[in-house]
C-alpha cells in the first residue's frame, strides 16, 4: 500500500492506493495553520500500513535534496506557511520513504502514466485555479532545473479591451495575475462559475491561456498539453484556446498534432480531479524504488 498527499493552498487531500494508481481511500482537510492541517495528515497515516508516501505540494518548494531546506514550502505569500518544513514534519511522525515534488509535477506524472498523456514521453500539465502552475515531463523525466518551473508567472501580452490591472503580488499582470480564478472574479465582480454566459470573459481567458500554451509549444515541444484546475471546468474554453493557439502559431510548427489534431493535443486531464493524487502515489513508488 502506498500513501499520497495532494497538498494544496485550499485543501490537503490524503489518499491510500496502489502502484497501479487505484485510490482505495481518501480524506480532505482544509488548509488552515500548518499545525492543525499537518496534525490531521499525520493522524490519517498513523495507523495505516503504507510502504511509502508521495507529496505533491503547492509552492514554491525546495526540491534540491542537498539543500538544508529541502522539503520546505518556501516563499509562499500564504499566511503561516512561509518557510514551512512540510516534508520534515511528516518524517518526524511517519517513518517510511517520502517522495516530494510540486503538485503540478505530480499531476503531470499521473497523467503521463495513466491519463491523457499515457504512453508519451513528454507532456505539460497546467492547472488554472486559485493560481496557475505547470509541471512537465521531458524525455520521460520530470523537469526540475534550478528550482522548478514557475510557468504561471510568465509575462503575457494584454488583451486590447481588458482594463483589469491584474493581481499578482509580484508581477501584477503576469499570466496568473490576469487569468487565474481570483483575477476573473475581480475583473468581473463575480465568481467564474456564474459567468458562463458572458462570452467576453472566456475570450479574454482563452487569449491569455493560448499565449501560455504557445510559449510551451515553442520552448518544450511537449507531445500533449493538459489543462486542468477549477477554471477549466468551463469546457467552452477548449475550442476557444484551440482557435487562438492555431492563430498564434500561424502554421509555423507543421505537425499533424497541431494542424489537424489540436483538439486532441490540448485536452482535459484524463484522470479528472485525481491527477494530482494518483501522481503522488507514483512519487511514493519512485521514492521506495529509489528511481
Ligand atoms: P485550487 O487551485 O485551490 O487547488 P481549483 O483548481 O478548484 O482549486 O481552483 C479554484 C478556482 O477556480 C477559484 O478561483 C474558483 O473561482 C475557480 N473555479 C472553480 N470552479 C469554476 C468553474 N466551474 N468555473 C469557473 N471558475 C471556477
Ligand atoms: Zn506573477
From TrEMBL:
Listed cofactors: Mg(2+)
Organism expressing this protein natively: Paenibacillus baimaensis
UniProt cross-references to Pfam families, sorted A to Z: ROK (PF00480)
CDD domains referenced in this protein's UniProt entry, alphabetically: ASKHA_NBD_ROK_BsFRK-like (cd24067)
Record Gene3D superfamilies: 3.30.420.40
Catalytic activity: D-fructose + ATP = D-fructose 6-phosphate + ADP + H(+)
Family: Belongs to the ROK (NagC/XylR) family.
Listed name of the protein: fructokinase
The protein's Enzyme Commission number: 2.7.1.4
Alphabetic keyword roster: Magnesium, Metal-binding, Zinc
